[in-house]
Amino acid sequence: MHRLPPAVAWGGLAVMLLAGYWAGYKLNLDPAELPIWWPPAGIILAGFLRRPPREWWALAAIFALAAVLAYMTAGRPPALAVALALSAVAAGFIAATIFRRLAHDPRGLGDVPTLMALLIATAADAALTATGLAAAFAYFFGAAFWQVWGMGSTALALGILLITPVFLTWDRNFFADATNSDIAESVALMLGTIALSLVVFINIIWSHGLPLPAMYVLLLLFVWAALRRTAFEATNVVLAASLIAIWGTTLGLGPALTQAGTPADHVLSLQAFLAVAAIVTLFLAVEATERRRSELAVREQEAHLRSIFETVPDAVITIDEHGIVESYSKAAARLFGYDEAEIVGRNVSMLMPPYYRERHDGYIARYLATGERRIIGIGRVVVGQRKDGTTFPMELAIGELRTNRRRSFTGFVRDISERQQTERRLQDLHSELIHVARVSAMGQMASALAHELNQPLTAVANYLQAGRRMLQAGDERGPQRAAEMMEKAAGQATRAGQIIRRLREFLAKGRTERTAENVNRVVEEAVALAQVGTRELGAKISFDFAEDLPQILIDRIQIQQVVLNLVRNAVEAMAQSSRREITITTARSGGEEVEIAVADSGPGIADEIAAQLFQPFVTTKEKGMGVGLSISRSIVEGHGGRLWASTNDGGGVTFHFTVSAAPSPPRDGEQHGA
Ligand code: ADP
Q1: Whose CA is nearest to atom 14 of ligand 1?
Q2: Mean pLDDT of 226-245
Q3: Ligand 1 center to residue 620 CA distance, Å?
Q4: C-beta neighbour count of 605 within 10 angstroms
């Protein structure tokens, strides 16, 4: 809502002031019937509300002076003229004060509560001021109190209701935003109202005057303006019709005067009609404006969201509870290679590798049924599939929107295959560190082992040598003593074995944290990470995960390091291949073990290194360190599993490793838990 420009405010007020006095002068009615009563109060109210206080005081002073002069010109005694002018100013003051107290934003008629505040202020003001006026008239002129009260309050109420809203609903945007057809409609509306008012109130067509109900035809135009146009226009057409109606009445024309009764009765019924018309129109107009404004707000919000959607660097995809895509951002189109038209209305699972494609509906259904969150609100690294079939690692966060009608999910996808070199470098550093730590640990272990084993092994050698000498000596007790020596040698050998076992146990204990993990999830995440920085090699990765695998007890980071190594090796091995496919399989193996396999379609292991594949520093790559497989094997063996390679029938290699399942928790705990 904008403030009225001062020039318009002053100009409008002056015109209304003059019109009011001119009408009153022409009417020359008894003061009790004066419809000129209403413009001053309405004007003052409007001026008070929309203009700064200093202007208002100037306005009130000018008005009071003009009113005194006008009343005196109309033949009223000076005392009465002053009293009338002051009471009109007071009326404007009272109404303005009440309205400002009740309305939360008195600077406009923006909503129904503000309109209600105006109506209450109007009614209270009309009643109060009319009481004072009627008392004065009864005292000075011996007029009938209730007659004056009725005329005065109706006139005053109408004045406020007709004029105040014109100022309160003023909106500069109307002129800024209006299209040509809007303006044409407004002009037609105003001209139609004026024409119809002239017919109804000035009898320009039928000189005998129209029946009273003819006035109600005008209501249709008011309703039209209220519903289709702005509140400002609606209040203007009502004001225009009212001015013409009053003019007609002063000329003794119009439907009101075709009825029997005194002029005072006619004025009263005309004013009552106009007041009702004004209130109805205002209600409709304010309602319609409010509705239009909230529609506009919704549309603006939609446009706002849309623009966020278009520009957000992450891919954003929303789906309904059946997995059907509802919207798909520009970034998503760039990331996955599908256009919006190819995706919207179809199942989001087409953006996933086949293994997940088949299960995604089930995931949603399970979530809807159980409410158990595995990814919503948590976020994970998963594998996405582009239109060309290649896969890539992505960080996926999912938000849920629940209204009482339906649910939908929003996925935020960030491609992490392109993350900067630094990240890759960090990972390389990480694996080098693991390697260095292991080499030094192995060195320490070897020297300790040498030291510890030296004694029993020397003893074994000594005993055996002594035994042999005894047998060679040919002594008759020789065989028996040789047997004793061998027994002692065996004892020392057992001790050496114990030392080795103890060392192994010690090493096993010194491990990092082991936790029970879901194999498939651990592997998927590692595969996703393995693709970081390998986009240019673009391999197609598919999954073949067994369901219902037992959990595995592992150091997650280490096992993921193994998977990452194997996948990286596979991707690198296939750099020159025309077919680049990797299949990751998880399966139950033997009794309590899980086997994870990474198969590629590359050239296979080079012959010259096949024999020492798992030894450190064996590599065929220019920049290779040759430690990946050896570290992987020691990690896997540290977990009590095995790592080996096999040749595929269709070419390429498969690396397999096993990890033992976590012991299942005791039944008791399960039953009493939670
Ligand atoms: P690096 O990758 O640094 O060479 P690794 O120990 O991981 O060290 O691998 C050793 C060698 O094993 C590689 O240089 C490569 O020749 C061979 N290799 C590993 N994985 C594969 C594979 N999937 N296909 C063919 N050769 C492989």
Answers
A1: 619
A2: 87
A3: 7
A4: 17
**H helix or E strand, kind and range, residue 35:** none
Q: How far is the CA of 434 from the centre of ligand 1 (A)?
A: 18
Q: How many CB atoms lie within 10 A of CB 350?
A: 16
Q: Is 515-660 a CATH 3.30.565.10 domain?
A: yes
Ligand 1 centre to CA of 609 (Å) is 9
Q: Calculate how far, in angstroms, residue 641's C-alpha sits from the geometric centre of ligand 1.
A: 20
* Mean of pLDDT over the chain: 79
| DSSP output for 235-292 | HHHHHHHHHHHHHHHHTT-SGGGGSSS-HHHHHHHHHHHHHHHHHHHHHHHHHHHHHH
Q: Is the pLDDT of residue 27 over 60?
A: no
In CATH terms, 425-507 corresponds, of 1.10.287, 1.10.390, 2.20.28, 3.30.70, to 1.10.287
Q: Which residues line ligand 1 (CB under 6 A)?
A: 565, 569-570, 573, 600, 602, 604-606, 609, 613, 618-621, 624-629, 653
List the residue whose alpha carbon is closest to atom 9 of ligand 1: 626
- Interhelix angle 78-102/53-73, nearest 10 degrees: 150
pLDDT tens for 336-355 read 999 989 999 999 999 998 88
**What gap in Å lies between CA 154 and CA 148, rounded to an integer?**
10
Yes or no: say if 552 and 519 are a contact pair by the CB < 8 Å rule. yes
Residue located nearest, by CA, to atom 17 of ligand 1:
605
pLDDT top residue among 625 and 274: 274
Q: What angle do CA 313, 319, 324 make, to 5 degrees?
A: 130
Q: CB within 8 A of 220, min separation 6: which ones?
A: none
Burial of 505 (0-12, 13-18, 19+ CB in 10 A): exposed
Separation of alpha carbons 293 and 498, rounded Å = 86
pTM above 0.90, yes or no: no
